[in-house]
Amino acid sequence: MSERYVTLAEVKELLTEESERRELLMSQKSALEHAQKVSYLSAEDTRRLVEEVSALDIVDDRIAAKIADILPKYPNDVRAIFYKERIELTADRIQSILDIVAKYIG
Fold first, then answer.
1. 43, 7, 39, 49 alpha-carbon torsion, rounded to 10°
2. Domain that holds residue 57
């Protein structure tokens, strides 16, 4: 069994599929409701966004999932995502992330 980071859109997709097969536990219902409220992109768009930002040298899988969940619109949003990381965020790197996100949120 392998592990990977999943985005809220993927959680929504997985739990929706599971709810069609069986009754969800209360915690799963709560997670699905939360994902439905805060996830703006489809799971497919989210996967594409994660793939694009992961291609940047400063973004790992965990950060890519955060970017896809938060969908930063401003430089300070990107800085907040990288707050605890030991990465030098230049204006160009921040703008690269914002440009990728902008393609998906229009």
1. -60
2. 43-105
Q: Say if 91 falls within a structural domain.
A: yes
Long-range contacts of 19-28 (CB under 8 A, 24+ apart): none
> Pick from 56, 67, 68: which is nearest to 92 by CA?
56
Domain count, the chain: 2
Q: Is the pLDDT score of 43 beyond 90?
A: yes
Are both 98 and 55 inside the same structural domain?
A: yes
Residue 54 CA to residue 93 CA, distance in Å, equals 12
What's the average model confidence in pLDDT over 46-64?
A: 96
For the segment 25-48, the average pLDDT, to the nearest whole number, is: 96
This prediction has a pTM of 0.91
